[in-house]
Amino acid sequence: MSASAADTRRKPRRRVPDTVSVIDSMTGQVVGRLGNISETGMLLIASTPLVDDALYQLRFELADHGGRPLAVEIGGHVLWRDDASAPGQSWCGLRFINLPESQRRALRDWLELPGGSYV
Prior knowledge:
disordered N terminus, PilZ_domain, 6-stranded antiparallel beta barrel, 13% helix, mainly beta, globular, Thrombin, subunit H
């Protein structure tokens, strides 16, 4: 990750302990899985090529404090991308550009659950 990308982080990022698939809402295809997430962005471990500086409409589910699925749909802007060690995978940093307030509150609650690990 470039120094400028690290400098733009304003919120702590929580590691995602389970495999959470991320789906491109426009195509219905899985594009990767969550690595970590904050209230303002996420690290995506992409299994399909994403374009630098592109916008995507993505969705995924996290389990809330009761184990119920919390559906999240976001607009994401790819800020940076680096090849991962596994063939065909890359690390992508995305900034949320469209997250409805109700989902932002639910995501904030998830981020504040006890037992989380932060990066």
